[in-house]
Amino acid sequence: MRRNGNVAVIIIIILAVAFSLFLIIPFGGRIGLLREATISFLLRKPPRFISMEFSLNKIPGSVAAGGSLTIKGDETLVVNRINANTFFTRYLTVDIPGFGKSNDLHEPIQTAEIRKQLLSAGLRSLPIDVYYINHPIAKIPLVIEVSADEFMNRLSKAKDVQEKLSILKSAVASFPDNPHFLNNLEQLLVQQEDYEGLVRLYKTILEREPGNLKAQERLSGYYVKLGRLDEARDIDTAIVGQGGSTAETYRRMALIAEKQGRQEERIANLEKAHALERNNEDVVIDLGKAYTDAGESAKMMALYRTAAPIARRKEILVPVIQDALERKDFKEAEPLLKRYVGLYPNDKNAVAQLGQLMGNLGDPSSQIEYYQKASRLSPNDPILLYNLAVAHDKAGNAKEALAAYKAMLRIKPGDADALSRAAALSLKTGQHADAYRYYSELVKKNNSRDNLRGLLSAATGLRDTDKIIDAANEYLKKSKDYGVAMQLGYAHEAKAEAFKGRARARALNEALDAYNLALRLNPSSEKAGQKIVDLKIEILRLMKNP
Predict the structure, then answer these.
(1) Sign (positive/negative) of CA torsion 18, 22, 25, 30?
(2) What is the per-residue pLDDT across 84-116, written as a single tens digit (0 to 9) for each?
(3) In terms of DSSP bridges, do strands 135-144 and 69-71 run parallel, antiparallel, or are they unpaired?
(4) Do β-strands 125-132 and 135-144 pair in parallel, antiparallel, or remain unpaired?
């Protein structure tokens, strides 16, 4: 009996040791699952989730731990079984929050409604929760498959930038090869100045496509935006090593070199870029600036002069045009300035400059044409109107010149030069009232003999004796002139015609004084002498017989 008892003890000890080793030593396969289930049971720990078995439209499938379930949204989903390391599978339940029952195991779920609600909320997935009794042991993402057309439709209905960003990020993740989604996402991120987001975007692309040169270029550019110059330089060096360098690569390398103070390297990279793309105006401008910064303005000008005949950018055309004008090489400047005006027709200064240039080339009609265009662009610019008026004046278009001067004076009244020219033209074209008004203003500013002479001529043209007398008197105060003195005498005589008797005699005395002055200025004047004799006789008669 004692022997049998000893054997039993030994067997129990062996079993205990074996069970302990079973619990301590990890195993694979079914034994391992049995071990995990045993430990879970003994320690009362939630079991480990292994997989979920399901059917979509009666087609069986399985999702392991860490996986997801993708649906189109028009299927019937049935969760058939949950596999976990437990002896008690009846305690395993499934719940799709907001849909079905509290336990959706074996329950048919219509995914169309799930899809509808998720899309309306701007979501693409929700979790399938797996429980053991009341303990969550797994979350399996239920992901909706969205077509490119659906993404486009959602984009068109997006209310703000943030919503668009969310949609585009999902679209790019779903359709990484769709350039439309990628380009639009990039544009929005640039607008937001989210360069960190752009770096993440292109890093993701390069993880999938390490040899994507375009993505490398983009990533380098955004590293530059963030000031991460060494990282950008490393990428660009790699691009060059792959033989995929472009003008843009070298241009960016030049920018990095500039920021890091390596000016020779900057120029060398830009010259490589220029060799690849001679007509790339961004490259030409950058290289020109680099030459200028290095004190090599002659190289800059030679570069710009070569590019200018087909250039469209102001930065290239303007320096070449200005240089030609400064050298008075009008023939070189003409086609370039015409090209500039063709590209930038609303630049009034350039149009006016072209007008001046055509005048220098002896083409007054073209000069007038461009001045007119400039004036139409800026109708209230007095300088443009003045230039137009002068051009018309030189071309002999008195009427048009006067109209331009008058327009200028309405904007800038009192301008002495314009007043002088308008006064002279008014007199020339027989507009004596305007001429008198302009000369009156001029005399107030400057009672020069020319202005006083013009005032007298305007008054004469008006045949207004009072104005003639006033103008003649003002002129004679400034300068003694035989002809003006005679004109004053004639005016007083004409005025005397309105009077009789002694009043007429007094008016004729004013005429007599004027003729006496004329005779003193020109003693040999027979006309003045005869006028004096005739008036003396007439005055005596009027005094005796009033």
Answers:
(1) positive
(2) 877 667 778 898 888 877 788 888 988 888 888
(3) parallel
(4) antiparallel
